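Exercise 7. Given the components listed, write out the predicted structure of the assembled complex. Treat all entries as one system.
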Amino acid sequence: MKSSIDCIPCFVRQAADAVRMSTSSDEERKRLMRAVLEWMGDIDLDASPPAAIQMIHRRLRGLLPTDDPYRAAKARQNDFAARLMPSIRRRISESFDPLTMAVRYAITGNIIDLGAKNGIEFGDIYSALQSAPIQPIFGDMTAFKKAVTEAQNILYLADNAGEIFFDRLLIEHLTGTRVTLAMRGMPVINDATREDALAAGLEEIVEIIDNGSDAPGTILEDCSPEFQRCFEAADLIIAKGQGNFESLSDVSGNIFFLFLTKCPIISARSGYDMGTYVAANWFGRMDIPVERGLQ
Amino acid sequence: MKSSIDCIPCFVRQAADAVRMSTSSDEERKRLMRAVLEWMGDIDLDASPPAAIQMIHRRLRGLLPTDDPYRAAKARQNDFAARLMPSIRRRISESFDPLTMAVRYAITGNIIDLGAKNGIEFGDIYSALQSAPIQPIFGDMTAFKKAVTEAQNILYLADNAGEIFFDRLLIEHLTGTRVTLAMRGMPVINDATREDALAAGLEEIVEIIDNGSDAPGTILEDCSPEFQRCFEAADLIIAKGQGNFESLSDVSGNIFFLFLTKCPIISARSGYDMGTYVAANWFGRMDIPVERGLQ
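Answer.
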């Protein structure tokens, strides 16, 4: 999907976040933001949001004293998520339909997204966890469950740090199937890289690859040949988060998107209200009114 | 107060709002936003947010096909507020302490601010109205009431369209005193101008002036000599909203700021949590920890 002019404030906010986390000098922050704004006018709004953000953060990395301003934030998110896991894992295993419950929690984890918001209050996460077990999932959970049962070779596209722990809980329920987990190739915003997958101990249960790209999404032509081969070979792709939706919603393939609608643009584009839990297969649906169904 | 780099995303969002409301052509919107971003790097962040926004919207008006993109939004906000008035007026007059209750509603009206957010859902206004009667007012309501009782000549600095109807309810309780109501001199964002004061029928109860400025705040040196004389002559100034706080918090004088804290920067600067109802006299308090008192 293309970017909208309403994505620009978010792009600028992400840049301000990166600048703020990279230096504590007020003068330096202002100088950096002036530089960012100067070349912000060149953004190609016909590109998807992850492609636009990729360009912005590539240029930012050239200016900032660190190549990963979000490192400390990601570590905090991982630590926090790790502490939540034992009780959530028990809740899932004790539920009537563990796979659906694991999907609910995997989508809940999608709240940990510094692309959509510049801070995640732990209180917000707790409150999302409270409502998680009773959240309706919109889209087509029946088709998702069938796809999971039939799949021989699942490619799981991760999204953010912290969230990756929640993804693990879902992956633990994708049993009897080969699962490959793909991480971002390089740090960008708080997107999860191989380091975060290792923090969640995922190397114990799946094969981990990275996509070779520094976009906060999955821009196929920008990904490594190895990743592209995995993408082609998979008979089911599970794509987590808005960034993967934004970059893959026009791509053909058996792709299920799992995400929480966190911005008005994604809400309008997907046809789901803000704050909706979505598990949907998208290809070919973009130009028709999106059916809304309570699962 | 100076602007922060964290104000910039909001400046860009306000510009995107103005562009969106001025043209429905996607191509034109993108062209305009590219132009905005190109000169956005020149913003003087040592200026207060209203001064920075003033510069941005002056330049925007040169590009847009209308000099008041928010006209329709302001008319909707006025219509909506007008319908709420009878029941709120009754609620205030029946309360134990009508002046304090009128302050609560005047601050509640401050939610109608397209500077702080790009859309006000009517549901949000209703929900704010539900909690309004029991909202604690932080700052110093005792001092405010004393100041109102003692004042001979009050200058009331209005803030936004829609909100001006809520201001009227408070002004109706500033009895036995000469009250002058100052509006913005020209349209900027959804700030209230003389037209909005007339929509609320305020010419029946007070003298209305305008400040001669197109800033979404009160930048004294930018205001007309007539306004400056009124400002000097007043023995109490009631300044509504964040924009007036941002531009007057360092100015000496018997100024009471009434506002709702709607952004993290104002929250940090004022020392009050987000969503706090504030009625406070500020001068000389900025460098010391702000006392928090429940009234």
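Discussion: Residues 77-281 of chain B form a domain with the Rossmann fold fold (CATH 3.40.50.10880). Confidence is low (pLDDT under 50) at residues 286-295 of chain B.
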